[in-house]
From TrEMBL:
The keyword Nucleotide-binding applies. The keyword Coiled coil does not apply. It comes from the Bacteria. GO terms for biological process: folic acid-containing compound biosynthetic process; tetrahydrofolate interconversion. This is 5-formyltetrahydrofolate cyclo-ligase. Keywords: ATP-binding, Ligase, Magnesium, Metal-binding, Nucleotide-binding. NCBIfam families: MTHFS_bact. Substrate binds at residue 57. Its EC number is 6.3.3.2. It is an enzyme of class 6 (ligase). Its cofactor is Mg(2+). ATP binds at residues 4-8, 133-141. It comes from Enterococcus aquimarinus. GO terms for molecular function: 5-formyltetrahydrofolate cyclo-ligase activity; ATP binding; metal ion binding.
Length: 189
């Protein structure tokens, strides 16, 4: 069995390979977004938390645009000391700054509490069919999700699905995975 580090590297390679085929990546994203936007999770959520994706990741820009066009509140995280996250409200005019990890974070003081967030679109590199994920290794999301009571989902390419690993006790599964894989449409716990 591969280590989390090896799986993380494998996940990044798979995403970068897919990014080298923009037409295919866009087609897969559209398919996944169709499932997300048709879901009750999406329709019943007024405040959506989502990251600004790296170039090779799932393009979350379409999620942000759709949410704003539907009058939903969009919140994007900033990383804080002690591997913590805080989410800040954004709009079309928000300015972003790039972190040392290459992630764009909003320049905003409009902090939003966990209790105000209806749905968090959780990023990751590798996902199991039970909704567990391997991210970039900081543990930021697992810490945040440990005390979060709202809904969660992830937008996952078939290339990111892998059940050949065991989650750890502090890992927090997402409720729902939206994917272009016909093998798995919903995370079951």
């Amino acid at each position: 069995m591969l280590s989390k580090k090896q799986l993380r590297e494998q996940g990044i390679r798979a995403l970068k390979k897919l990014a080298n085929h923009p037409a295919l990546k866009t087609k897969k994203e559209q398919q996944i977004l169709t499932f997300l936007f048709a879901s009750q999770q999406w329709k019943t959520s007024d405040t959506i938390a989502v990251t600004k994706a790296l170039e090779f990741e799932f393009d979350t820009g379409k999620v942000i645009q759709r949410a704003l066009s539907q009058g939903k509140k969009v919140v994007i995280p900033k990383s804080l000391p002690e591997r913590k996250l805080a989410f800040y409200e954004v709009d079309e005019d928000t300015v972003y700054q790039r972190t040392q990890f290459g992630v764009e974070e909003p320049i905003s003081n409009l902090i939003v509490t966990k209790e105000e967030i209806d749905l968090i679109v959780v990023p990751g590199l590798v996902f199991s069919s039970k909704g567990y994920r391997i991210g970039f290794g900081g543990g930021y999301y697992d810490r945040y999700l440990a005390h979060y009571q709202g809904r969660t989902c992830s937008l996952v390419f078939a290339e990111q699905l892998n059940n050949e690993w065991t989650n750890e006790p502090l890992d927090v599964a997402v409720e729902r995975i939206y994917t272009d894989s016909y093998k798995m449409k919903e995370a079951t716990q």
